[in-house]
Amino acid sequence: MTELPRAMTGPAPAGPADPVLQIRDLSVALPAWADRRLAVNAVSLTVGRGETLCVVGESGSGKSVMARSILRLLPEPHLRIVNGQVLLDGEDLALADDRRMRQIRGGRIAMVFQEPMVSLNPLMTIGRQIEEILEVHTDWGKAERRRRVVATFEDVRLPNPDFIVGAYPHELSGGQRQRVMIAMSLVLEPRLIIADEPTTALDVTTEAQVLTLLKELQQRHGTALLFITHNFGVVAEIADRVAVMRSGELVEYGAVGDVLTNPQHPYTRALIDAVPSLVPRRHPDAPAGSTAEPILTVRGLEKTYGRPSAGPAWLARLVPAIGKGGRGAVKAVDHVDLDIMRGSAVALVGESGSGKSTLARCLIGLEAADAGSALIAGDQIVGLSRSGWRPLRSRIQMVFQDPFASLNPRTRVGDIIARGAVLQGETPAAAMAQAHDLLKLVGLEAKAAERFPHEFSGGQRQRIGIARALAVKPDILIADEPVSALDVSVQKQVLDLLDDLRRRLGLTMLFITHDLRVAAHVCEQIVVLKGGRIVEQGSTAAIFADPQHEYTRMLLASVPGRDWQSRGRNDPVDRVT
Amino acid sequence: MTKPFWIRFVGNARVLIGLIWLALVIVGALAAPWIAPLDPFAISGQPFVRPLDGFAFGTDSLGRSVWSGLVHGARTTLLIAVIATLGAVAFGGLVGAVSGFYGGRTDNVLMRVTEFFQTIPSFIFAILLVAVLSPSATSVVIAIATVSWPPIARIVRGEVMSLRSREFVQAAVTLGEEDFVILFRQILPNALSPLIVTGSLLVATAILTESALSFLGLGAPNFMSWGFMIGAGRSFLRDAWWLVATPGIAILLTVLSINLVGEGLNDALNPRLRTP
Fold first, then answer.
1. Which residues of B touch A420 (CB under 8 A)?
2. pLDDT surpassing 50 at residue A325
3. Edge to edge, what strands does the sheet with A379-380 contain?
């Protein structure tokens, strides 16, 4: 470690007056075959009453292991605490026996997990799952337990608590489930809540609500909160103090204002710089929208999932209820009109369920649209068969979301990339030579062609995915959340690569994302989708400056750390004057 | 870095024991005419000669060499079991792959047919088939293959279904790849591990089925086999134990070895159990 954390260099950061949790020199060992010896290396942290400490780091930084070791939820003996103390109100949990730990878990320390769907038992009602905690930790009667559960649900502002007590997890939305998880953690009024990326799986508007709720509840109950995240926007939103971890070590630790505005460690600085700015870019060489010809014209496109109608037409006339779209039918794409100009970059923005991915899949032929038309440079694609699509494959290509699932693990990288060109009639040798060039183009070595996908990191694999899409020399590139599965610092590199390639190759880009910051970073135009419909479209700058639709305003307001992003961050080239 | 497949596979002690025994059996079967020159059906000495008394494994009620029977029997048993398994894997694999890849009505029809075969008790079905087709080496192979393909079809179908929705398969679709190329180049190589494991374990089941059929006298006539030897020796169990014990132990060890090797393959091929 070249640079000592703040905590060790200057005077200790103004420690909380009333410490609830003190971690001292905590080290957690990894099994012998791991890539490093310690998952957590001599970390010291303190969380005070009513205080929020955010632990920030990328995947593999040891932040989750650190949090789990507080509750001793490690998969022992593979991971075990080898050194240090975990003091909760002065009691060392590292030495506590199993019975004592069971009392502490849920009672004194509660944990909120990342994925609200898998954290709840699907076979038990919500009320039952919370009552179980009270049964274990208290000797209250049934009526009293019930009263407490309903009161807690009201506390986390769940609508209609009496219904939710009897509901099963699948009957609730993702945000409601996460509220239930928070209610679960609050029900015994613990001293400390550990939240492990509790909003990562949520939509941005839901995330904003959950963060506000957490902050408010914490102030009301005076609970200490240890919040683990990889997102500096969230840090700016809720943290009092910040700890940055890398490779198991604490690299920076201090008050939120200091760390965000004046980061000491280069790694912290890199992480903060990697957060895409909410300030829209102005591209000097952006083609003027009015003069360019449209390359993709979509008119009245529709796609319905589920049964389109429950009975034959004559029956529907007799019994009107039958004809009403059928049970469980969802209009994923609802009469979408869209014009995309040659050489432009358009972001399709929306929350999960907005139909943005379905629209993209219809445009690339992975789904068949039910009605409407879509023309790629004049060629109709709606209603084409698989063989009818084949000649059009070189016009439009896609970069997929998950770089770990989108490359065949049994095929060499060179063959993965070259295959598209071979299918377009190129000789294998020429296609392989082109694959080598493409690898260099996306910032990898030509030697990478000989290797298998598992030898590459997430960001490198996404570069390979981009090279594969470019191998057929497409006019249009659809990128479906290409960075949402990547670490923050890698996200920026991949976004910059896409932006650069688009300019150099004159690509038209359709960028699907839920993150307005990502959209602002690479696209001049934004199309906002909600419930399968376009609610607003226009230039990024115009929409950010003056959103017309209420939903767009809500999306913009929900971006975590919005104030910090538009105020403190500056990027002279990109700043809108 | 994980160790190469072979090291992980052979480094497992149980696998090594299994492989050694299987190698002995295979070498014995291949070299049968040289290491056991006596015809297994020829009367070569006195009946009921005890083991190590002139004959390594003794002789049976008609004075035939048990050693010759063992070695030539290994030939028949292994050959029938392996061919039947290959047939089952090929047919079941094809049914499963088509079923899983196309889904919908194709899947429905093929899976109902598969279930039809699965509902019939397999050994009784095999006996019935051999009886109908008249006992011969070919009909034993057909019978074993017919009763053992459904589990293969189910496994391959499940694998193909989950792989079909993976993004790398979709990427192949967007590049304009043909269906069968996608199936054979993208999907099946990734479904190979469970197929190899199940296939290797099927060989063990096929050996047991073949032995049981031969025991009942429904095996291939004119071919010595382990099951036939047990069947012929069972009435002298109290007087000449070696007639039943030697081929019985041979079956036991071979089936056990195949299971050990199959499980070892599973450990080495299944990435979730992999400890680097």
1. 175-176
2. no
3. A330-341, A294-305, A371-376, A379-380
A46 in contact with B at a CB cutoff of 8 Å?
no
Low-confidence ranges of chain B (pLDDT < 70): 1-3, 270-276
Contact B168 A390 (CB under 8 A): no
3-state helix, strand, coil in chain B (%, to 5): 75, 0, 25
Structure confidence by residue, pLDDT tens digits, A357-415: 889 999 998 888 888 889 988 888 888 888 888 888 889 999 998 888 899 988 899 99
Are A400 and B189 within 8 A, CB to CB?
no
Tens-place pLDDT, residues A519-555: 888 888 999 998 889 999 988 888 888 888 999 998 8
pLDDT greater than 50 at residue A55: yes
Q: What's residue A311's pLDDT?
A: 52
Supply A203's token pair: 């939509």
Phi, psi (degrees; rounded to nearest 5) at B227: -65, -40
Q: Does A215 touch chain B (CB under 8 A)?
A: no
Q: Of the candidates B272, B275, B253, B188, which has an alpha carbon nearest to the alpha carbon of residue B20?
A: B253
**Which residue's entry shows tokens 């099951």?**
B227
HEC string of A488-516 equals HHHHHHHHHHHHHHHHHHCCEEEEEECCH
Mean pLDDT (whole number) for A252-273:
89
Look at residue A511 and give its three-state secondary structure. Answer: strand
CA distance B186 to chain A (A): 7
On the question of pLDDT at A115 being above 80, the answer is: no
Q: Whose structure tokens read 């899947």?
A: B107
Q: CB distance from A398 to chain B under 8 Å?
A: yes
Q: Strand ranges (DSSP E) for A402-531?
A: 476-480, 508-513, 525-530
In which residue are the tokens 């939120």 written? A256
For residue A129, what are the contacts with CB-CB under 8 A and spacing of at least 6? A120, A121, A184
Q: And the tokens for A322?
A: 């039958």
Distance between CA B222 and CA B41 in Å, rounded? 8
Tell me whether A402 touches chain B (CB under 8 Å). yes
